[in-house]
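Hi support team,

I'm opening this ticket because the web form for multi-chain structure prediction keeps timing out on my end. I have pasted the exact lines I submitted so you can reproduce it. The total is 577 residues across two entries, so I didn't expect it to be a heavy job. Is there a limit I'm missing, or should I split the entries? Thanks in advance, R.K.
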Amino acid sequence: MKKNTRLITMLICLAAALLLPLGISSHYNQVLLNQTVVYIIVALGLNFTMGLSGSFDFSTAAIFGLGSYTTGLLTTKLGINPWIGVVAAIGMGAVVGLVLGFPSLRLRGIYFVLATLGFLEIVRQLLSNMTWLTGGTNGVANIPALEIFGFSLGESRNFYYVALLFLVIGIAISYRIIYSKWGRTLIAIKDNEIAVDGCGIDKASFKIKAYIIGSCFTAFAGSLNAHLFQFIHPADFTFDFTVRFIMMLMLGGLGTIPGCVIGGIVVTILPEMLKFLGEYYWLAFSALMLVMMMFIPYGFASIPDVIRKKVKRAGGKD
Amino acid sequence: MEDILRVENLSKQFGGLKAVDQFSMNVQRNAIHALIGPNGAGKTTITNLICGEIQQDSGEILFQGESLGTLKVFERARKGIGRTYQNIRLFDTLTVLENMTVAAKVEHSYGMLRTIFSYKSSQMEKKERRDKAMDILKYIGLEHLANEHVRGLPYGNRKILEIGRALVTEPSLLLLDEPAAGLNPSERRRLMDIIYKIHEDQISVFMIEHNMDVIMTISDRITVLNFGKKIAEGTPKEIQNNEEVITAYLGNRFKKQGA
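Hello R.K., no limit was hit. The queue was backed up. Here is the completed structure from your submission:
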């Protein structure tokens, strides 16, 4: 029964997502929608490290940026097919995940967090200063749009549907991982690292693999982003950008897939809806975030559970 | 009888404190061996040294004839040393069953890519883990709580579940750090039954405990520790009549009982 409810909810959400662009007429809103889908993929990636095993990870913007630049440079400088650029970006994500995660995730404590924080700054500096390769602060322009069977995806509705397909695949992969030994063990690591050791589990190997797959998601989304806007700039990939994804997870609900989706939608679209406030829109958004964190500390995804418990308690009294 | 665990001249110093001082002990295979002593005698330190949570300054630990050297905690656990903790360490946000499946030792354990791309393999592994976990839950009498969240479990059941989680890793030596602490008499009875059952299933048990009723009833052998040093070793009867142990730890009640 519970499984059926979940399936029906997912199908309704999918149908809504498919119909949504039909109600959108402005180009701006369509691009915003495309961006939302891309950001949700990043949230799913971050969810493997931060959501499940609970370690803070600040490298998201750097890996997203590296994914963007990988495909951006390959396609503009070498004229390679954009889809190959996207695959190369995924490879880049895996390599970065391994190189950064392997040494730092074997240590207990805060070293991984510090490593990701340092990496974020290093990548930003390199992207802005290696002018011969990255174009420095001019960014990379004229990145070709993705094409599928001769249809250009550009910034349009076509891009949305293809990105949505990738998102569905990303969600399917996430479900597989979260509801297997991988996800359960990562949650166990968050609950009690010492006991995980005592059970004969090599926790470092779990954390490293989770970080690698998360980085692949993030770099992949970064490459989609590069082809969506056809222009990338080092100033896009800063600490603020990382925090945006951490916010998505906290607000949506750590470790849950609906949490990633809801958090991704709210954090991407809500600031735009507040733009009528003029220059105060970001202040208003931050204040709203604060209030939401106070009243629903476990995120939007926990609301049904909270309601269920309240109903149960009320029922018990009667 | 053959020894499953040999501890030879083990020493560990924390700053100026000699927590464990030239300590030697043999745990026989299939025995229930207890380690007792006053608070601060170094009992938990010895357990942590055996498990590899901390490294000794000198001395050696041999498990099934093999030196444990500098093996990490999880490597020692894989070799067959299971343990519970003085302050219960469960996975609180998981269910009872999930606590067990995470720890379960299974034949088919697949990598991340195979888990993602092969539905059949991932289902097979899931089923194997679940079956094994359910078997142990039945063994310790908690199968009716399988889908409960651990957070809401009463204290006694949490302690028992921790033993179950250690069992599902298929240990040949089980270290129990104060299993009876905080249990009421009926729970203690249940605990002793389970320890007996484990003992009958050829798993060696090494436990730290303060409850003398439990110790004297079920142990085959007792080692007494004071200020990091071994002061006595023997059967429960021998220990109860040992003058030094009585002065250091037991008090006179047990002497009267023994006489």
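A quick check on our side: Chain B has two domains: 3-91+170-258, 94-148. Let us know if the file doesn't open in your viewer.
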